[in-house]
Design a protein that fits this description.
Enolase-like, domain 1, binds 2-succinylbenzoate, single chain, alpha/beta, binds magnesium ion, TIM Barrel, five-stranded antiparallel β-sheet
């Protein structure tokens, strides 16, 4: 397959409700989409980098820049298989979300030409996946209980509460008191330090599934230290950039669970290797989320059907994020989403709607970048 050109597109999508985490509030998304144009067909990729470098060092303008100037020139006008993308991009350090987006697009093109779905390629063992929902920091406990109650009424099978210092034990206690033993976990997005370990151990009383990324991404050893004080299993998200980072973190006891986000680790192929590693080490994994559109969601739901994705993921329905998705919407049924079965990602993009929300587009071919 020859990669002839890549179309880049930025779209603007408002969120149905503000989403607050320990690193800020989001009310809309500015998403970078990539389309791989090959001699055998086309494929879509979604870059999960946010507007600001506050979840990780990556951000959407930076991802667009590195794709145009450093990543795509290494791939264009070559015979290419999806498995060769990561090795060709290896000389460029970091920028995993940018790398993941183009690998995804090439993989989609490749599987579409083979008539094979992402799910089949990953070795999916189920045709629908259990879904959880990530609940942002709320203005008050009353708002929190109303929001969580609404999601439980819709059928979500697990609740994740975003926490930060000053919004941790009380919200967890309130949700437990009102909703009983619903599967519950928390995500700190790096807001704590090792000095907070005894405070976080207060959460042990509530039977949480896990506590996600309490400390900054580089503090892997400190997570192993915290795990000696906090009995709730520690799950890493931000710290896990690669198969090697996952192997090291498991080895030193920094985590007992891993949140897999294909964008964060440089693509679905690396994510699949992390799945296999964790299965081998007896470490359960679950599919994280980055507020993806239907394109990213399609790939994530397919991967979440792999055998060691034994915990419900942050793979929520389209309407949890957007009034209108750019693909056919993912709809929750009994707390689950269906794994797409069509070729490649198995979803189709609503190109007319896409045009209407596009804020910038460009096409990079062997002759360079054309914008319009
Ligand atoms: O830490 O898991 C996270 C969203 C953006 C950035 C980081 C995270 C999240 C979420 C939302 O928790 C997950 C989703 O529903 O997509
Ligand atoms: Mg997280």
């Amino acid at each position: 397959m020859k990669l002839q050109a890549v179309e880049l597109r930025r779209i603007h999508l408002p969120l149905v409700a503000p989403f607050e985490t320990s690193f800020g509030v989001q009310t809309e998304r500015d998403v970078l989409l990539v389309k791989a144009i090959t001699d055998a067909g086309e494929g879509w990729g979604e870059c999960v980098a946010g507007e600001e470098p506050t979840y990780s060092s990556e951000y959407v303008d930076g991802a667009q820049h590195v794709l145009i100037h450093h990543l795509l020139p290494r791939l264009l006008d070559r015979e290419l298989a999806a498995a060769e993308v990561a090795p060709l991009l290896h000389p460029v350090h970091g920028h995993n979300m940018a790398k993941a987006s183009i690998e995804m697009a090439v993989l989609d093109a490749e599987l579409r030409t083979q008539g094979r779905s992402f799910g089949s390629f990953f070795g999916a063992v189920r045709d629908e996946v259990d879904c959880g929902v990530s609940v942002g920091i709320q203005p008050s406990i009353a708002d929190l209980l109303r929001t969580v109650g609404g999601y439980l009424d819709q059928g979500y099978r697990r609740i994740k509460l975003k926490i930060k210092p000053g919004w941790d034990v009380e919200p967890v206690r309130a949700v437990r008191e009102k909703f009983g033993d619903v599967p519950l976990q928390v995500d700190a997005n790096t807001a704590y330090t090792l000095a907070d370990a005894e405070h976080l151990a207060l959460l042990d009383a509530f039977g949480l599934l896990l506590i996600e990324q309490p400390m900054r991404e580089e503090l892997v050893f400190a997570h192993a230290e915290m795990a000696k004080i906090v009995r709730t299993p520690i799950c890493l998200d931000e710290s896990i950039h690669s198969w090697q980072a996952a192997a090291d973190a498991i080895q030193i006891g920094a985590c007992r669970v891993i949140n897999v986000k294909p964008g964060r680790v440089g693509g679905y192929l690396e994510a699949s290797r992390i799945h296999d590693l964790c299965a081998d080490r007896g470490v359960p994994v679950w599919m994280g989320g980055m507020l993806e559109t239907g394109i990213g969601r399609a790939g994530n739901v397919a991967m979440a059907a792999m055998p060691n994705f034994t915990l419900p993921g942050d793979t929520s329905a389209s309407d949890r994020y957007y009034h209108r998705d750019i693909t056919e919407p993912f709809v929750l049924r009994e707390g689950r989403l269906k794994v797409p079965t069509g070729p490649g990602l198995g979803v189709s993009v609503d190109e007319e709607f896409l045009e209407s929300i596009t804020t910038w587009e460009g096409r990079l071919g062997p002759a360079g970048l054309k914008t319009g």
